[in-house]
């Protein structure tokens, strides 16, 4: 159950690449996976991937949401139908996986305990919260931490004073082959001039790509040679391009658009620094990937990022602090020995996390908390009664 938009194209189901890689892991754990999510017919974006497993059944849910009054009214009108469709999907399931935060995630947290006692929620946002977050996000976090949610909640980071069902966890979108590729890239990292800076992520307001562009302008004024590649697409694409033109940075700031995961590795290979200083992050996949490839990463001082980049593995700056980001990038550019040390520490840390280790960790987690044998062909049956051929779905 997720708010991620899916695309039906040429008899295949596509969605955002990192999400698809994780869904494939769930498909490896269960005989049948039902996905309740918004769906469109047509060509997926450039960063989309096809779900490669055959045991997937997509149940389309009307897309809703937005900040405008019209969007809110549409959401209200569609709510009864959405709830009915979710209930129909939940009625046919033996286990439920809800992905939060999101509009459908909130409904899933409310409805799922009425249909199953095998529940797991993934909270992909910043579990500690942040001042600007929406009330619906706070409500989801409250419900997940309460007795209403009788299942597991996986969160990024180890936060104090949490109930026992809230469990620190991790994610990954890299296979063992990707980790090997990352190791090769990391082994080639050496300080170079100009400093090659990379941004990978959605071009939305909270990702603060505009702050990076302004920091690059400041570096140019200080005669620090830099090149910046921006990988991704989103609602701020045109605004960011206009900002680059206005600051006369077209020769050193380049937009790659939305590209597939394999192409992103080409940018990791030719870049030295990744900047992703967002307003909020859970487990930022781009930072984890870049660290594995030996890039020096700069993130914001929020969420799990300070832990990921702690102990000399990277740098953190306050979100939307242009001067702090400028000074940090200048320090990196003028400290080649430190670049080498940070690159090594980052790679050693992040290369431990792969899709294979994620699958094994999920199997162990579900076996322990659901009292099931996840190595059995029908894993949602209790360990003491696992000789049944009943098919199982998880949404």
Automatic annotation (TrEMBL):
| UniProt keyword list | Glycosyltransferase, Transferase
Q: What is its EC number?
A: 2.4.-.-
Glycosyl transferase family domain location: 184-347
**Superkingdom to which the source organism belongs:** Bacteria
Cross-referenced CDD domains = GT4_PimA-like
Q: Which SUPFAM superfamilies does this chain map to? A: UDP-Glycosyltransferase/glycogen phosphorylase
| Signal peptide residues on this chain, from the entry's feature table | none
Q: Which Pfam families match?
A: Glycos_transf_1
Name by which UniProt lists this protein: Glycosyl transferase group 1
Which organism is the protein's source? Answer: Rhodopirellula maiorica SM1
